[in-house]
Amino acid sequence: MLWKWRNKSIFEQGFSRPLNPASSLLSSVHQFVLCQSVDSSTLTNSVQQVSWRCPPLGWTKLNVDGSASSATHIARCGGVLRDVAGNWLAGFSVSLGCCDPYEAEEWALLKGLEVAWSLGVRRVIAESDSQNLINLLLGEDGSSAISLVAFQIKEFMCRPWEIKLQHVSRFQNQVADYLARDPTFNSTFIEYCPSSLRALVHQDCIGIIPPSD
Question: I need a surface site. Which of 16, 27, 129, 203 has the fewest CB within 10 A?
Answer without folding.
Answer: 16
